[in-house]
Amino acid sequence: MQKKNLSLLGITTVAIVVKIFNYWTGNTLLHAAARSGKKETLKLLLAHGANPKAKNTEGKTPRETTSNQDIQALLKRHSDTK
């Protein structure tokens, strides 16, 4: 698994795992954040190497699992640059 360190608010350092996925559904943390509308979480994951083109077992990317247009636009921008 790919781990990267980051500083949160300059107070503490934590390790974040950006390649976690659900074995049965294939959903990644990006899929979960997209479906939940967690824009800041998406930005954090993307900044630390999460793959916006990852597909779940249904063949859907995180962008295809949300109806939130802001989230879709954010994921599209990152998909176009990778």
Strand-helix topology:
Layout: E1 3-8, E2 12-17, H1 29-36, H2 39-47, H3 69-81
Antiparallel strand pairs: 1-2
Helix pairs in contact: 1-2, 2-3
Describe this structure in words.
α1 (29-36) runs antiparallel to α2. The chain has three helices and two strands. With 82 residues, the chain is an alpha+beta fold. β1 and β2 form a beta hairpin. Strands 1-2 form a two-stranded antiparallel ribbon. It has a single domain, classed as Ankyrin repeat-containing domain (Serine Threonine Protein Phosphatase 5, Tetratricopeptide repeat, Alpha Horseshoe), CATH 1.25.40.
What distance separates the N and C termini? 19 Å
The SSE order reads: EEHHH
Tell me the CATH superfamily: Ankyrin repeat-containing domain
Q: Could you tell me the number of beta strands?
A: 2
Question: What is the highest CATH level, the class?
Answer: Mainly Alpha
Offer a few descriptive terms.
Ankyrin; disordered N terminus; 82 residues; alpha+beta; globular; transmembrane; Serine Threonine Protein Phosphatase 5, Tetratricopeptide repeat; Ankyrin_rpt; 2 strands; ANK repeat; membrane; two-stranded antiparallel sheet
Explain briefly what this protein structure is.
This protein is α+β, with helices and mostly antiparallel strands. The chain has three helices and two strands; from the N terminus they run ββααα. β1 (3-8) and β2 form a beta hairpin.
